[in-house]
Amino acid sequence: MEKFSSHTGVGVPLRRSNVDTDQIIPAVYLKRVTRDGFEDGLFSAWRNDPTFVLNNEAYAAGSVLVAGPDFGTGSSREHAVWALQNYGFKAVISSRFADIFRGNSGKAGLLAAQVDEKVVQRLWDLLEESPGTTVTVDLESRTVRAGEGVDAVEDSFDIDDYTRWRLLEGLDDVGITLSHADDITAYEATRPSWKPATL
Amino acid sequence: MGRTLSEKVWDEHVVRSAAGEPDLLFIDLHLIHEVTSPQAFDGLRIAGRTVRRPDLTIATEDHNVPTVDWDKPIADPVSRTQVETLRKNCAEFGVRLHPLGDVEQGIVHVVGPQLGLTQPGMTIVCGDSHTSTHGAFGAIAFGIGTSEVEHVLATQTLMQAKPKTMAVTINGSLPPGVTAKDMVLTLIAHTGTGGGQGYIVEYRGQAIEELSMEGRMTVCNMSIEWGAKAGLIAPDQTTFDYIEGKPEAPKGADWDAAVAHWKTLVTDADAEFDEEIVLDASEMTPFVTWGTNPGQGVPLGASVPYPADFADAQDRVAAEKALQYMALEAGTPMREVKVDTVFVGSCTNGRIEDLRLAAEIIQGHTVDPDTRLLVVPGSVRVRLQAEAEGLDAIFKAAGAEWRGAGCSMCLGMNPDTLAPGERSASTSNRNFEGRQGKGGRTHLVSVPVAAATAVRGTLSSPADLEPFEKGASHPPQEPPVTVGSN
Ligand code: SF4
Question: Domain Aconitase/3-isopropylmalate dehydratase large subunit alpha/beta/alpha spans what residues (chain B) (predicted)?
Answer without folding.
Answer: 7-457
